[in-house]
Amino acid sequence: MIKAPPTPKGFRDILPEMAKKRRYVINTIVSVYEEFGFVPIETPTLEFAETLKGKYGEEEKLIYEFEDRGGRKLALRYDLTVPLARFVASNLSLIAKGPFRRYQIGQVFRGENPQKGRWREFTQLDCDTLGSADVSEDARVIAAAITSCRKLGLSSAQIRINDRKNFEGLSKNVVIAIDKLEKIGDEGVIAELVSKGINKDEAATLLQKVKNSKPTQDLEKIFAELKNLGISEKEYAFDPLLARGLDYYTGSIFELRLPEYGNLSVGGGGRYDNLVGMFAKKQIPAVGFSFGLDRLLELLPNDS
pLDDT tens digit string along 209-220? Predict the structure, then answer.
């Protein structure tokens, strides 16, 4: 019997049954994005390496980069957001008369260690608003994510929401340690802070201070707008310990969880007002959300 060549590690073929299920999920989410006023765009799978580098902090080492025959340094896109920032900086007329709301579905690539539900090539489904600092756009993005879950039958989905302003005055190392609370508990966080040179009593005080944080004024506005958009209070929650994307986000941050699956994250996002400005040479506010398709597929019933 002839043995066919394998796929590279972390890459895979998708059989018809799974491809059909993937298409169902994509079509469902796209229908919601369009209901909320987002329009489609597409960007190249390849970018110049310098376009992507310097945007992801320590995760930059996962970028697939190479030289082509002409000696040009290229890279496979790591996500859909940095290419979006480049796209908008190249098409500023799109935001000249008001916010530009886009969605995109596409393959992204990360050279990380493959494991269950994590591949080196995977599909993201994003929606973003660019050109508006109004936090009603944050609420719009969050509401689109929750409504997508409803339509997929994931009725227990909940968005955890925080504001980066709640971490003002804290070093990056402190925030990274506090973000691990759910996994390692209070004592684990305090021990990690002590290992970083912080006195034990001071570490305990820092942790308690963050735990006692209240929703910022911007978050209160987002919560009010979510109610206006028909999102119930059980579908979102303030989480003062949420600290994703320290090198990326500037305001609201959010993560979509499914409690019955051990609070498994199926997507996340936030406000990133500085990223587009790296290309446009002026600040352009932005906020967005991204679903991970493979994680969603793991949680849907087989008859979906």
Answer: 888 999 999 999
